[in-house]
């Protein structure tokens, strides 16, 4: 089964200077407007190549050291996005998670995610692609690619800002649309779904696309994701007064199509390694679970310094939280509060026993996922470098093992590292389908068996049975405390499965936002149970600070009152400069006085 891979293609001279995303910055579009351009399929393909580099970024490029605005995490967004959530704690706490974001004040026009440079590129294509005498069946493939990217771009903007301007053409400095108010969310999202449907119609079937280019299944995957997000966002954000059923139906329909397309959960039968190994590969060409991935090449100088810096815990110097670790079930399918198999929390070694195998394949037990002897950061593995030890800090003691690629040769390649980046994977589709069907009131045991239980089967976890859903009063209490509602037990377990399976794949923030569960960020950030004998040189009360139960509190000094949540954080603010430039823009609620 042939899978899609993305190779970064550089179109020398095609769009020189297009890295500046400030909307008011004019791109040198005249470089591609001569009478000879837009005439051939090659012209259309070359133009779209730059869009692939912008939207399908994987682990990014080169040193991969920049941060993503407005979130503040590293540009390798898939593995690092969770550092602003309740799944992870970076050494320097996330200002977004702590309700201290002020990028709209400190940044200029076009900052904080309010950037429109790539949208200008997309609309420039739409304004010009018909100029040549290219066969409609050929040119429409590239039209489908552009529609896919435009839908993805607008989806990301709606997640950040809610209402955003809808632009259909390239704007000039005197265009009236520059001074228009924001387009209502309902209109934007309807347009996004229409774009995706058109893209699905134009893109080739899987296997018929040119090497390295997207196909229908990729667009169906995005439709599944967007439909679930928007449908549930509208349901739980009742203040919007919007109906989300059509989006949930669209998500379920797209998911169902992919469930009938021949994909499956990757497994070799090794329940203790398969989940971890899925995220540590040079290639996904023959992997039945990966729908979209990005390939890197040292020979073409098209690599990225990800494997080295992630393995050595340099980026964000982060650790997982106790809140995430406690959410993993025991191997009998019961929560830790109920299971007789749970061995307690007196040490990380104890709490790892008899747990969902994904826990030890996501979070390092002491001594596991070791770097090569002598490598920078090698001392992170026997014991994590908690505060009080030298080296790059893991502030909670729960060092993340997911994405650890045990290939010293790849670490040595630095910016030419070749660890492949999975972008869309089939497990998400199964989880999307289960949740969408629940929200539509159409869930059945057969659907649970097709989705949740197939995901669990990779690690041989007990099947979820609708007639015997385990109680979890601790998690229910968390919902009541931090979410103002308690989901039905089956929905609680669907959400748990999503959190565990997709941990450190940049889903948690979006999930909390769409469930109107942002207040979960107020749950105290805790780490491992501190055992003095394991860290004889670390001084309690000076190097580390502990809770009453003895858990490490990484933010005890810098956030003594903990993180706070404000409902304004469900959307980010528009930069003040842009509000001045366009008086018809209105600031998002709660940010007006900042």
TrEMBL record:
<dbReference type="InterPro" id="IPR012944">
    <property type="entry name" value="SusD_RagB_dom"/>
</dbReference>
<keyword id="KW-0732">Signal</keyword>
<keyword id="KW-0472">Membrane</keyword>
<comment type="similarity">
    <text>Belongs to the SusD family.</text>
</comment>
<protein>
    <submittedName>
        <fullName>RagB/SusD family nutrient uptake outer membrane protein</fullName>
    </submittedName>
</protein>
<keyword id="KW-0998">Cell outer membrane</keyword>
<feature type="domain" description="RagB/SusD">
    <location>
        <begin position="307"/>
        <end position="591"/>
    </location>
</feature>
<dbReference type="InterPro" id="IPR011990">
    <property type="entry name" value="TPR-like_helical_dom_sf"/>
</dbReference>
<dbReference type="Pfam" id="PF07980">
    <property type="entry name" value="SusD_RagB"/>
</dbReference>
<dbReference type="GO" id="GO:0009279">
    <property type="term" value="C:cell outer membrane"/>
</dbReference>
């Amino acid at each position: 089964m042939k899978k899609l891979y993305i190779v970064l293609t550089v179109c020398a001279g095609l769009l020189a200077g297009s890295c500046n995303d400030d909307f008011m910055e004019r791109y040198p579009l005249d470089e591609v407007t001569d009478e000879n351009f837009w005439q051939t399929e090659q012209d259309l393909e070359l133009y779209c190549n730059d869009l692939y580099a912008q939207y399908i970024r994987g682990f990014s490029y080169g040193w991969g050291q920049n941060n993503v605005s407005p979130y503040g995490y590293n540009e390798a967004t898939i593995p690092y996005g969770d550092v602003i959530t309740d799944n992870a704690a970076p050494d320097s706490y996330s200002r977004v998670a702590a309700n201290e974001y002020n990028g709209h004040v400190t940044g200029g026009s076009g900052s904080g995610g309010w950037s429109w440079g790539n949208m200008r590129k997309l609309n420039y294509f739409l304004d010009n692609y018909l100029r040549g005498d290219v066969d409609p069946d050929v040119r429409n493939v590239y039209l489908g690619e552009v529609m896919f990217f435009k839908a993805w771009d607008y989806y990301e903007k709606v997640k950040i800002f809610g209402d955003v301007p809808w632009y259909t053409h390239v704007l000039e400095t005197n265009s009236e649309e520059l001074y228009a108010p924001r387009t209502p969310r309902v209109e934007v999202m309807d347009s996004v779904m229409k774009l995706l449907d058109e893209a699905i119609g134009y893109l080739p079937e899987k296997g018929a696309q040119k090497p390295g280019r997207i196909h229908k299944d990729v667009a169906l995957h995005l439709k599944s994701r967007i439909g679930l997000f928007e449908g549930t966002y509208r349901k739980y954000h009742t203040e919007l007064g919007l109906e989300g059923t059509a989006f949930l139906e669209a998500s379920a329909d797209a998911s169902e199509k992919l469930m009938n397309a021949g994909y499956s959960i990757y497994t070799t039968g090794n329940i203790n390694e398969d989940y971890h190994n899925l995220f540590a590969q040079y290639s996904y060409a023959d992997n039945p679970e990966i729908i979209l991935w990005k390939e890197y090449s040292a020979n073409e100088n098209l690599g990225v310094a990800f494997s080295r810096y992630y393995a050595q815990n340099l980026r964000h110097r982060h650790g997982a939280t106790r809140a995430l670790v406690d959410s993993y079930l025991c191997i009998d399918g019961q929560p830790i509060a109920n299971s007789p198999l749970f061995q307690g929390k007196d040490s990380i070694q104890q709490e790892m026993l008899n747990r969902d195998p994904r826990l030890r394949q996501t979070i390092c037990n002491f001594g596991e996922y070791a770097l090569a002897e002598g490598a920078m950061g090698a001392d992170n593995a026997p014991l994590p470098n908690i505060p009080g030890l030298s080296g790059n800090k893991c502030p909670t003691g729960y060092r993340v093992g997911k994405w650890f690629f045990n290939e010293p040769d790849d670490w040595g390649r630095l910016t030419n590292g070749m660890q492949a980046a999975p972008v869309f994977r089939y497990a998400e589709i199964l989880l999307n389908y289960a949740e969408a069907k629940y929200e539509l009131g159409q869930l059945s045991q057969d659907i649970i068996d097709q989705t949740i239980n197939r995901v669990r089967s990779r690690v041989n976890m007990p099947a979820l049975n609708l007639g015997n859903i385990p109680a979890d009063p601790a998690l229910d209490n968390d919902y009541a405390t931090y979410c103002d509602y308690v989901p039905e037990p089956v929905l609680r377990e669907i959400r748990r499965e999503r959190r565990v399976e997709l941990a450190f794949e940049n889903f948690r923030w979006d999930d909390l936002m769409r469930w109107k569960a942002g207040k979960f960020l107020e749950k105290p950030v805790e780490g491992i149970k501190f055992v003095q004998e394991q860290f004889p040189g670390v001084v309690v009360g000076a190097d580390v600070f502990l809770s009453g139960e003895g858990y490490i509190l990484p933010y005890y000094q810098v956030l003594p009152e903990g993180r706070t949540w404000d409902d304004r954080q469900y959307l980010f603010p528009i930069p003040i400069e842009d509000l001045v430039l366009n008086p018809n823009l209105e600031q998002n609620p709660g940010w007006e006085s900042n």
